[in-house]
Amino acid sequence: MTETPNSRLKLILNPIAGGGCGVKILPHVLRCLERRGLEVEVFRTQKKGDALEAARNSLDYKAIATMGGDGTFNEVINGAIGNDVPLGLIPLGTANVLAREMRIPLDPIQAAHVIARGNTRRIDAGKADSRHFFLMAGIGFDAEVVKVLEANRKGNISMATYAIPILKALWNYKFPALDVEVDGTLVAEGAGFVFVSNTRRYTGPFVITNRARVDDGLLDVFIFPGRDYLKFLKYTAGILFWIADRIKEVKYLQGKEIKVSSADEVSYQLDGDLGGPLPARFQVVPGALNIIVPG
Q: Which residues contact 251 (CB under 8 A, 6 or more apart)?
C-alpha cells in the first residue's frame, strides 16, 4: 500500500460472525492497527446490505477492512469495486475461503498485522449480471441448499448448520437440465449441476477447481453431467477426496464468459448467498480487486 497522508481505515464489523467473537476481540484489533498509525473508524452491520453501503461510502479512506465471513466480504467488494481502495480481511466466518486462498492468517490479530503492513495484490472478480463475486457461483443443488438455509436462517451459521438444509434439499430435489456455453460455444446440454469459480477452494477444506488462479483473467467451469442420486453421490465423493476432476465424464473448462440456462426453474448462488434465477451470464473482471495480503 503506497503511503499517503490519509491514515483513515474503515473497519466494517459483522457482530454476529464467528459467534460474536469479533466484538470481543475488537479492542485488541484496534490497538494493533492504531499502533501502526492508522485512524480506525468502526462500522457495525445490523442487517444484510449494510456492509455494501458502508463500503460504497468509504472510497476516500486509505483502506477498507472487513471483520466477518465471506458473505460480508462479498457485500464489501460490491460496494467498493471499480475503485482502487485496498481491501483487507480479518476472517471470522464459517469457511473463510478467500483467507485460505490468499494465505491470510485465520488468527484475527495476525490478520490485523497483515492489514497494517498494507501489502496488496490485484485479483480478478466474477460478475453475474450486475452483482460481483470473488469465490464462485454454484448452479443447481448447492444453490438449492442455500435457498433452504436462507429461508430458515437465524443468526450465525456454522458448518453443522448446513446439515438440515442439505437433507431438506435432497428430499424433494429434482436435478435440472442445464445448458452451458463457454465463450460462445455450447459445451454441455442437460448437465446436472455446474460450478463457475475464481478460486481453487469451494468451501472449507474442499478443492474442486484445482487449476483456478485468482489473477489469470479466467473463470474455471466444472460441469457435472449426471442427473440422478447415484451420480450425485459419486461426484460428492470425488469432491470430498479432491479427485472430482479425475472423474471421466466431468468437464473442466476455462473461459471469460459463461452462460447457463435451463427450461427448469433453477437458482444460482454467489459466494454462499442466493444470487438469482437462470438464465445467467458469468463474466470475469480482470484485476478488479485490490486485496491486502501477507507480504
A: 187, 188, 221, 222, 223, 225
